[in-house]
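Notebook entry, structure prediction.
Reason for the run: the old model in the group folder had no record of what sequence produced it. Starting over properly, with the input documented here first.
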Amino acid sequence: MLSAQQLRGVFPAIPTPVNPDDTINADAARALMRYLLKQGVDGVVPLGGTGEYGALSRAERIRMAEITAKEAAGKIPVIAGVLDPGYHDAMQAGKDFAAAGADGLLVLTPYYTNPTQGGIRDYFLRYADESPLPILIYEIPYRTRIAIAPEVLHELSKHERIIGMKACNTDMWHFLRTVAGVDESFAVLSGEDTLFPLHVAAGARGGIVVTATLLPTAWKKIYDLAREGKTQDALALHRSLIPLMNMAFAETNPGPMKSVMDLIDVHAPHMLAPLVQADPALSANLRAELEKQLDLFERKR
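New structure, fully documented this time:
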């Protein structure tokens, strides 16, 4: 059973390789997992926003979870995203992903209905009670328009089956208040590539990092430096990745990233509606930057 103690280090949020007919490109998905395992990541998170959860059919979501878990083969945790807005669909997704071999679930804050803080608390408590797997809370208010109060997160962190969270609230004061009051058994993971070393310095135990799909070694180095208290060194290394991050997020993720993943031998640039492929000029510039960073961090290891 996945525990908070295993939620340490760098967990790439991985895209879903798809064919032109919107089905999973299984060969590319396997190639991506082989690359990440070889680079020594600490876990993977399929089927989040980066994984285009909302655009995939339910059957293809399950298939992606199955492929990812089979390739992980118990070597690293697989934490599948659950991004449904309603409780019953979210619970069914969790059961499906558990049956597919996932180790944990990343459960999104319920959105669109504008719940109260009490409603959010009750939702996660009920989900944790009924879930077949341990869960992480996924707080990303710039997507859901719902922030979770630090005090609610403090309460939820005491539930034995709520083992952590992906923190995507870019308000550092909110982050600091959250970390200050969560249970010691609860792992706060940074969910922001752009704030990762600051989050680790402030108490995050690791992170769910989008561009770690492309450059896992670089992100693991940043994590190690920040964890060791070498914050300035971590920030300097992080600063060198700002051009890549600027381009990776210049259009809606994962469009730019998918367009250059052939550089890590993952050949699946297709996007799912309503997202479209990245602008060719942006893709070309990102490709040049990624080639430079791969030479620095991956190919010369």
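Summary: The chain has 13 helices and seven strands.
The old model has been moved to the deprecated folder.
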